[in-house]
Write a structure and sequence with these properties.
Layout: H1 2-28, H2 34-54, H3 62-79, E1 84-90, E2 95-101, E3 113-114, H4 117-125, E4 129-131, H5 143-148, E5 153-159, E6 168-174, H6 180-250, H7 256-270, E7 275-282, E8 287-290, H8 299-304, E9 306-308, H9 315-322, E10 326-328, H10 339-344, E11 349-357, E12 360-369, H11 377-444, H12 452-482, E13 490-492, H13 494-511, E14 515-520, E15 527-529, H14 531-549, E16 554-561, E17 565-572, H15 579-582, H16 605-615, E18 619-624, E19 630-637
Parallel strand pairs: 14-16
Antiparallel strand pairs: 1-2, 1-6, 2-3, 4-5, 5-6, 7-8, 7-12, 8-9, 10-11, 11-12, 13-15, 16-17, 17-19, 18-19
Helix pairs in contact: 1-2, 1-6, 2-6, 3-6, 6-7, 6-11, 7-11, 11-12, 12-16, 13-14, 14-16
Bound molecules: adenosine-5'-diphosphate.
Adenosine-5'-diphosphate (ADP) binds next to helix 14 and helix 16.
């Protein structure tokens, strides 16, 4: 694009000048040279113009401009063989000979700069200067040059770029000035050609220079981007590695302790370290202690490594106290490091960063290499990021350890309690049976008559023994359900089970002035169930409804076929259960606030029911709105063989 523009400009400019000089030439030709001489001279000039125009191109580099000048001079020399031609270029206050034409050996010392006031004058005025007889006084500075070229008379033509003093000048020298008229149009043509081309070429050159600068700038930016890019990639790799560790650690069922070791391993690989350890602050001992899972340290060395926080000669302690990262190229010879530990682990390069959990410092991360002067500030920065992640994992490990320790303690206590209850229940059952037997015998009067007071007291004893027996039997049930009791599954007809339970409970319901209704669907499919245990669940729900609904209440038992499961519900219109208690009523020993002192109970009925239903692969739940009654339902999967 630029080349095309330049070519068009150059050709346009030279065309216009050609035409101009053609006219001018015609006018200035001396009339007395005659028609033929005039035609020949005109012919020479036009062929000169035509031939040189073919070379009129914009040079791509500055030296091409010199080539082109030489080309013009050679061409001109062909037309005026006896002449000398010199081209000067204006420098800083001086003129420099850039091109010349004459077949002789040029002395290099002549190619130098000349102070030449005549050229200055001509270049400013822009006119041709004609010296028919060169006097040495005029050209003192170039006298030697002119004598070498045998210049006795000279015609000087400035290259006149638009609106400025000439920067180049052609000197046409001859032994005598006879040719000066004829050479004038040639010189003007060459001057105009070269000045317009030089202008364009200067622009091209400037453009090229600008493009080169731009290229260099772009290259520099690309290089910078490359460096930044590879740093980013490195960061992304580090983050990914971290992410993998963190997700591994926080994933379900993963051991946080292993996660800590994994992260230290990753650090070791990322920075090519030989030793990586996290030193955590032990508040009790006021020491920094190496945590398990460290990389490159034997357990024995780990035990040897603990530093009192009072020991400020230790670089780890200082990092811990100041929270400032530390790096050294040779730990074993650095006075700021305890050489003892550097030697113990045989490390030279060392980095230490603080491990902070939010605004609390919990320890330091120590990374060492056997090679001296090995770690870079970039790696120190990476370590700082890792330390943040590590802090979270360490907290998780600590929490996890505390929780699992507590869970273990609780499980152990629970086991002891279950064993104790089971033993006590068994131990109580036999004497209670004996007591109940003898109380019944005494109450029946078989062993002698009793007065009214004795009868009343014994009735109270009998009732208490019944409650105690009920509690013991519940405890034994629960202990069996917690143990390895096997359900004896068989095809069971829930209709029949409900019917039998409802009829057994009718007497109790009537005593409490409660109306009990069986509203089961007629055709309920069979389920696989242990009838003794499921019967006990239905009993528990019915007993509760009768107990808690209160006098005058109504209790309905319903059953629905839900396809995959049969749902049995016992619904009453009693006081219901407060929202906040609903999720707790199935817990062992839980008793409602309203019932605890009003209604006798053990708090075990619903816990037993839940355990039984779940052992059948079913579910049990409660729906209740306080004041609007309670509805207890359980669902059992339908037997596969219908
Ligand atoms: P218990 O009846 O021996 O207290 P349960 O495990 O059977 O033990 O019941 C736990 C608690 O659930 C009861 O103490 C009572 O507060 C509440 N509850 C159970 N059934 C009902 C009901 N039908 N209406 C109101 N509260 C009930």
């Amino acid at each position: 694009m630029v080349t095309e523009l330049i070519a068009a400009t150059a050709i346009g400019a030279t065309g216009a000048f050609g035409a101009y000089w053609y006219l001018k030439f015609k006018c200035v030709l001396p009339m007395e040279t005659g028609q033929r001489a005039s035609q020949k001279a005109f012919g020479d000039f036009t062929s000169f113009v035509r031939e040189t125009l073919e070379r009129a191109y914009a040079p791509e580099q500055t030296e091409h401009y010199g080539d082109l000048t030489n080309y013009y001079l050679i061409k001109l020399h062909k037309v005026f063989p006896d002449s000398s031609m010199l081209v000067f270029e204006k420098g800083k206050g001086e003129w420099k000979l850039t091109n010349y034409l004459k077949s002789f050996k040029m002395e290099p010392k002549l190619l130098t700069s000349y102070k030449w006031s005549a050229l200055d004058r001509s270049s400013t005025e822009g006119e041709l200067l004609r010296f028919d007889e060169v006097r040495v006084g005029d050209y003192q500075a170039v006298a030697e040059l002119f004598s070498v070229f045998d210049i006795k008379s000279a015609l000087m033509c400035p290259f006149q770029p638009a609106g400025g003093a000439a920067e180049r000048m052609i000197v046409f020298g001859a032994a005598n000035p006879a040719q000066f008229d004829a050479v004038q149009p040639y010189l003007r043509f060459i001057a105009s050609q070269l000045s317009s081309i030089s202008k364009v070429s200067d622009q091209v050159f400037a453009l090229r220079k600008e493009t080169d600068n731009l290229k260099n700038e772009v290259n520099a930016v690309v290089k910078e981007l490359d460096v930044a890019g590879s740093r980013l990639i490195q960061r992304a790799r580090e983050r990914k590695a971290l992410y993998e560790v963190v997700t591994k650690v926080t994933g379900p069922g993963e051991d946080a302790q292993n996660g800590c070791a994994a992260i230290l391993n990753i650090v070791a690989k990322m920075v090519e370290a030989d030793v990586v350890a996290s030193l955590l602050f032990d508040e009790g001992k006021n020491e920094l202690v190496v945590s398990p899972g460290s990389y490159g340290i034997t357990d024995a060395d780990r035990m040897l490594y603990s530093i009192p926080v009072s020991n400020q000669a230790s670089s780890s302690v200082r990092t811990f106290l100041t929270r400032k990262p530390f790096i050294t190229a040779d730990a074993q010879n650095d006075p700021d490091v305890l050489a003892r530990y550097a030697k113990l682990w045989d490390i030279h390069s060392l980095m230490i960063v603080p491990i902070c959990l939010r605004d609390r410092i919990i320890g330091v991360l120590r990374v060492g290499s056997r090679r001296a002067d090995f770690f870079t500030p970039d790696q120190l920065e990476f370590l700082t990021i890792i330390a943040d992640e590590l802090a979270i994992i360490i907290e998780m490990v600590t929490l996890y350890e505390n929780i699992s320790k507590k869970a273990q303690e609780l499980a152990q206590l629970n086991k002891l309690k279950d064993e104790f209850l089971s033993t006590v229940s068994h131990e109580l059952k036999t004497p209670l049976t004996t007591i109940k037997g003898f109380v019944s015998v005494i109450l029946s009067g078989e062993v002698g008559p009793l007065n009214e007071q004795q009868l009343n007291f014994l009735a109270v004893v009998d009732q208490s023994v019944n409650r105690l027996t009920h509690l013991i039997s519940n405890l034994l049930d629960l202990s069996r359900l917690n143990g390895k009791v096997e359900m004896e599954f068989q095809k069971a007809d829930l209709k029949e089970l409900v019917r039998s339970a409802v009829s057994t409970m009718q007497l109790k319901a009537r005593e409490k002035k409660v109306s009990l209704f069986n509203e089961l669907d007629k055709d309920l499919p069979a389920v696989q169930a242990d009838t003794r245990w499921i019967g006990q669940v239905i009993d528990n729900l019915l007993i509760n409804a009768i107990k808690y609904a209160g006098s005058g209440a109504r209790v309905n038992v319903s059953g629905t076929d839900k396809g995959e499961a049969i749902v049995i519900c016992v619904e009453d219109n009693g006081p219901g259960i407060p929202m906040e208690e609903q999720k707790m009523v199935f817990d062992k020993f839980y008793r409602g606030r309203a019932s605890i002192n009003q209604v006798p109970g053990t708090g075990l009925g619903l816990a037993i029911s839940k355990s039984v239903v779940e052992k059948h692969g079913g579910k049990i739940w409660v729906e209740s709105r306080p004041g609007k009654g309670a509805k207890f339902c359980f669902a059992l999967p339908v037997s596969k063989e219908k």
